[in-house]
């Protein structure tokens, strides 16, 4: 899965190699270290996680110092941004689906209600947080803060330490880990039943276009 920084690196590499080959003296080949620096995407299978660790207690100190101002000391503040936690139950954690999301008229109340993968939390924290200082957290700090957010959500206990070994355990307890699907028309490719990720191109909605005298 490409994200914008990785896609940019690929384009830079392609342009660099083309210029280097077709126009001698212009451009240079991308170095291995430059490619490594851009290659930071990690899929939901949790392969290639950085060699980092962070405990709930370590994350609490970092969170209170650098995150609570926007998200509140309990992660439930909506004063500045969307609440991080709230709206989930122990049954959601056990079942992998947030039950309230299936109920008509129930508003989504927190990030944790929608979070499908642990890497989504890790990646966003690493790239965008803290507000105004994006990218300033070390890998260990990202893991620690993420562990504390999971603790606030009731996903892990206060003795939990997040590292590449325990990441699967945390992901396996996300309240909405099974709440997403690619079995719809917006996702291209063969149907999930045929080994693909879409529904074979079947539209999700149908209807006739109204050009005049339309019902309000």
Summarize the structure in words.
The chain has 216 residues and is mostly helical. The protein folds into two domains: 35 residues, no CATH class; 118 residues, Cytochrome c-like domain (Cytochrome Bc1 Complex, Chain D, domain 2), CATH 1.10.760. Helices cover 36% and strands 2% of the residues. A two-stranded antiparallel sheet has the order 1-2. The chain is globular, with a radius of gyration of 22 Å. The two termini are 41 Å apart.
Number of domains: 2
Q: What fraction strand? A: under 5%
Biggest β-sheet strands, sense, barrel: 2 strands, antiparallel
Number of helical regions: 8
Q: How confident is the prediction overall: mean pLDDT?
A: 87
Structural Rg: 22 Å
Low-pLDDT segments, ≥5 res: none
* CATH fold title of the largest domain: Cytochrome Bc1 Complex, Chain D, domain 2
Summarize the model shown.
The chain is an all-alpha fold and 216 residues long. The chain has helices at 4-22, 32-38, 56-66, 68-71, 90-95, 118-128, 139-152, 167-171; strands at 54-55, 161-162.
Name the descriptors.
single chain; 216 residues; mainly alpha; Cytochrome Bc1 Complex, Chain D, domain 2; 2 domains; two-stranded antiparallel sheet; 8 helices; 2 strands; 2% strand; globular
Topology:
Elements: H1 4-22, H2 32-38, E1 54-55, H3 56-66, H4 68-71, H5 90-95, H6 118-128, H7 139-152, E2 161-162, H8 167-171
Helix pairs in contact: 3-7, 6-7
